[in-house]
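testing teh design pipeline on a random one, pls ignore if ur not involved
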């Protein structure tokens, strides 16, 4: 089945205007259902084809929702150095563009985990402004923390069919003093169904992107 085109009306019921978003600040909302981790990966790769340096993506989703899998797909589509994993313990990972990849000369990928950063000022302390112009910046747990970085952004929520509330990462039982007490590596990203909701904010995302990839089984 073809991935829904940007001009298609979102199927989930909600609003009299089929293109409107429940979030009054969003220009649009688009919901995609996937049934495998591979489809989550492929959707990220398809989205990467329309991303440019300076784009900001904010990811939200509970443990195993597919944030890392989705970001790995973005990295593959952008043609950056492989090895995308959750930056939970280091806060920021930078994956440079590869000159022999599918997009030579394209943007780098900056992957951020903002869960431990409690405010916009703490985001400023990691100097994302220095890489924003040359990279696609993906921030997990960034809602309410990174909106000041750009006038435009994509918010992407990943929902498991059965899961824990997306407001808290997975707690690590028996963590010792000085060790992180949360783990958000998406290590349980299996092939259960997921719903991925994208919202566009600001002039960069005035309309929904056209994604031409064919992803079998999505709806």
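output:
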């Amino acid at each position: 089945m073809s991935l829904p085109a940007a001009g298609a009306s979102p199927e989930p019921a909600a609003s009299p205007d089929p293109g409107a978003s429940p979030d009054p600040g969003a220009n649009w909302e688009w919901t995609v259902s996937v049934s495998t981790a591979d489809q989550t990966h492929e959707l990220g790769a398809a989205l990467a084809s329309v991303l440019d340096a300076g784009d900001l993506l904010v990811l939200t989703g509970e443990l195993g929702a597919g944030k890392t899998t989705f970001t790995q797909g973005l990295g593959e589509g952008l043609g950056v150095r492989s090895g995308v994993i959750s930056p939970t313990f280091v806060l920021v990972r930078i994956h440079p563009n590869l000159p022999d990849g599918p997009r030579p000369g394209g943007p780098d990928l900056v992957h951020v985990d903002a869960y431990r950063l409690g405010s916009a000022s703490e985001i400023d302390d990691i100097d994302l402004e220095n890489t924003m112009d040359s990279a696609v910046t993906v921030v997990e747990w960034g809602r309410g923390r990174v909106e000041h970085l750009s006038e435009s952004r994509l918010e992407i929520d990943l929902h498991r069919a059965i899961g824990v509330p997306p407001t808290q990462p997975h707690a690590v039982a028996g963590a010792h003093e000085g060790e992180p007490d949360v783990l958000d590596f998406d290590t349980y990203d299996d092939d259960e169904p997921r719903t991925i909701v994208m919202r566009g904010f600001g002039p960069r995302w005035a309309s929904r992107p056209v994604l031409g990839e064919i992803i079998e089984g999505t709806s």
